[in-house]
Structures are given as C-alpha cells and as structure tokens.
Amino acid sequence: MRRVYSRKSMVEFEPRLVALTCLYLASKAEESIVQARNLVFYIKRLYPDEYKYELKDILGMEMKVLEALNYYLVVFHPYRSLSEFLQDAAINDVNMNQLTWGIVNDTYKMDLILVHPPYRIALACIYIASIHREKDITAWFEDLHEDMNLVKNIAMEILDFYENCRTITEERVNSAFSKLSLKP
C-alpha cells in the first residue's frame, strides 16, 4: 500500500479500497489466494456500516494498483542480508542479534524499504545495535568497502523515528483525537 501511495495520491485512490485490493493482490502473489468475494463478505461482516465497496470495485482497483506498481510486485527484505552479515561478522551475542532483528522489524514502520537497498538497511541496523551494545566491529565494516556515510544516514533516519515515537505521549494522542472529533 505504501508503494502505491508513493506514486499516487490518496485523493486519487480511496485508501480503504486500496487496502483491500492490496490484500487481495498479496494473497495472489504469495499463492495463497483469498477469493475477492470472500474478502468483501468478511469485511462487510466486520464493518457493516463503514464498508461500502463491492466485488467489482476491488477487481476494478486491482488493475489500477498494478499499474501504479508498474506490475512489479516483488519487494526485497533486509532479513536475508541481515542473517548473512551477522554470520559474516561472527556476532555470537544473542542479545545483539535479537536487538538487530528488532530494529529491522521496526524499519517496516517507516518507508526505508522503498527508498534504500535492503542490504544497507541491514547494515544500518547492525551499526545501531553494535553502538548500543558497545561492540567494536569497525574493522568488519571497513572490510565491506561500503559507503559508511550512506549507512550512517539510514541509521540516523531509524534513530529519528525512535525519537519521534518517544515524543508521542498519550496526552498528545488524546488531544489529536479530540480535535478530530470536533470537526464535522
């Protein structure tokens, strides 16, 4: 869905319809097909008052979403690179490995996967974890011959995300909801 909206406007494509269409397309791409009519049936059952789309709407939006994605449904993830890098760096610290995997999981809450190559995201996560755990793997990074400025920039984006999450308090969320409920 993020990939669609990185190319198209939310005004152009209604988000609820795009979400269901992306779910339908993902099931087809992963070869565990969910029939569109079943999807419509269960969504209407879960959200009877909110959901107004029919089967024809999802099927019509399917082609629009595919066009927005240039018919390219493959997304590469940083997990494979991460496993190989952790093994190559001979990092046997279970806590550091878990921390690194957790950071990679958190990157899916951002648009990094749409902007940066997956292997660099994995390197940035290892970089953050190594600093946090005070592990010196500078020599390993140097052996990679990777542009560390790019890796550090990605790491800063991840750290900025964490910083922004910390500043979101319950009071700010409640205030935002109260402002939204005041609007007609």
From TrEMBL:
Pfam families xrefs: Cyclin_N (PF00134)
Matches recorded under InterPro entries: Cyclin-like_dom (IPR013763), Cyclin-like_sf (IPR036915), Cyclin/Ssn8 (IPR043198), Cyclin_N (IPR006671)
Signal peptide region: none
Gene3D superfamilies per UniProt: Cyclin-like (1.10.472.10)
Residue ranges annotated for the Cyclin-like domain, each copy included: 1-67, 80-160
Gene Ontology molecular function: cyclin-dependent protein serine/threonine kinase regulator activity
SUPFAM superfamilies per UniProt: Cyclin-like
GO biological process assignments: cell division; regulation of transcription by RNA polymerase II
Keywords annotated in UniProt: Cell cycle, Cell division, Cyclin
Keyword Cell cycle: yes
SMART domains: CYCLIN
Family: Belongs to the cyclin family.
Protein name: Cyclin-like domain-containing protein
Taxonomic lineage: Eukaryota, Viridiplantae, Streptophyta, Embryophyta, Tracheophyta
